[in-house]
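A brief tutorial aside. Many learners find it easier to grasp structure tokens once they have seen a single protein encoded end to end. The record that follows does exactly this for Cytochrome b5 heme-binding domain-containing protein. Read the sequence first, then the structure, and try to relate runs of similar tokens to stretches of the chain.
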Amino acid sequence: MDRIITLNEVAKHKNQSSVWIIIHDSVYDVTSYLEEHPGGSDILLEVAGKDGTQGFEDIAHSDDARIAEKIQSWSHRSY
């Protein structure tokens, strides 16, 4: 069973030491990915603790990013 993560819990992870974001109703801990993100860490920090789905869709992400999204989510109904 998937772990249910509340919006309040996600909202606590919004600084450089712990960055969680929501994309398509799934929660991702992207803290270790900050320095590797092709768009830079600032763009991830802007949506830290929030839903980043719109930003994810607005950018033409690679197929690899979309596959990683399906594999690495913590929950399929996060909130």
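Self-check: Residues 7-72 form a domain with the Flavocytochrome B2; Chain A, domain 1 fold (CATH 3.10.120.10). If you spotted this yourself, you are ready for the next section.
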